[in-house]
TrEMBL record:
One of its GO terms (biological process) is post-translational protein targeting to endoplasmic reticulum membrane. GO terms for molecular function: molecular adaptor activity. This is Tetratricopeptide repeat protein. The keyword Repeat applies. Residues 1-24 form the signal peptide. Keywords: Repeat, Signal, TPR repeat.
Amino acid sequence: MKARRPFHNAIVAAILPIVLGWTAADAQTAGAGGGLDELFTRLKEADAASARRIERQIFTEWSRSGSPSADLLLQRGREAMSAGKSTVAIEHLTALVDHAPDFAEGWNARATAYFRAGMFGPSMADIGRVLTLNPRHFGALAGLGTMLEQMERPERALEVYRAALAIHPHLEGVEQAVKRLEAKAAGQEL
């Protein structure tokens, strides 16, 4: 993995301005339609249990491409991932992003498949595309934070995790990651 570090650094350098270049207020107003805007408003105000339900509603909305063929490719890609077949998932999801390049959830699903295959560079590139199309995609931000943490970039991971929490204050696992990284940073400063 060390040999890939310069490549990863270049990808991180390209993606982070996208992620960090907008504020939480921008995230609240970006993206599609009033229905999602209302869900995001409710998400920020919800308790943890309600937030999980609202999160599922948001993901359901994000997963609607408007094209039956794109929806089928997304379904097949997700099924392949669930079956542990990352290569097959990547093939289906590559067909999806070729067919529907403006469908953010297609890019997000392929980023996940690449991540599961251990291909951080392509995963990060796809996350960059997701966040360009949908800056409120807290799942993509959480994935980016995880990769940055695994690449031993804790300061950057913390920034990205905080950006995710600004959108979704109860994002599972991310609250704990922020506390862990903050504690680690505080311990290093002593």
